[in-house]
Amino acid sequence: MFAIRQYEFGPAENLRYEEVPDPEPAQGQVRVTVAAAGVHLVDTTIRKGAFGPVDFPMTPGREVAGIVTALGDGVSPEWLGRRVVAHLGQANGGYAELAVAKVEALHAVPDDVSFEAAVAMIGTGRTVVGVLDAAKLTADDVVLVTSAAGGMGALFVQEARNVGARVVGLASGEKLDHVMNNGADAAIDYTRPGWADGLKDMTVVLDGVGGEVGETALKTLGVGGRQIIYGWASGTMTPISTAALFTNSLTATVALGPGLMRRGLRALEDESMAGLASGRFVPLVNPPFALKDAAKAHEALESRATVGKVVLKP
User: What domain of life is recorded for the organism (predicted)?
Assistant: First the structure.
């Protein structure tokens, strides 16, 4: 099979497209012929060495969807030939034509759900569900979504509309059209100087960007508003002081880490996949990159040139 291999930490060009032996499923595992592999910002962090040690050489990729084509010992024959999606864990072989997954990680994918949509929801979607648990959106809310044209941001816009809230999305350039087409009440170009002028009395900020954007977004909150932090794509966390919170009796909540884990990852995945099947969530997916172009996918994601979930297709 062909797979992406990495031999040392560094830039995207370190991702090499190579022929390697087919993996064999071990006890309690299946082999999946990959139809779509998810690319996440965390993958770029792992690639650069900022997420902890890994064993080289490695094949990155934590999310795959496809067909089960081989079974390890102890796995029920009913899985053979099934359409599935799975989160593989940390940097665990997803950027490949074939991948192995633990049987307990599998979710069946209905025939009317695309592999691209499924892989968009298994990791990104479970995080979205966890963040929404913390946000507790209601019809009375006015929600500001940062990075509203991204894989997570697009789902936040949808959920805000699902509960009857008003929603403003931040994006840039042509991405603003995607935000409006996704149901936002307004879309604002956050790269424009003074983008927040006149924006006030937000009740919720969903902040995945951090830095100056997150800090400015905090200032748009009205009395009793809440900022839900789920990332810092800018490279720096949103600076928040007690004084800033005191001014309008604001609250700030970090939705990642232990808070995300309270329900358990499988429960979050179950809700995410059920939301996909029911139409509650309709993931925005960037036009897929070929597997051999994984480096280009990383570069595009890091430069914010993508819209929605980034996916590789073998």
Answer: Bacteria
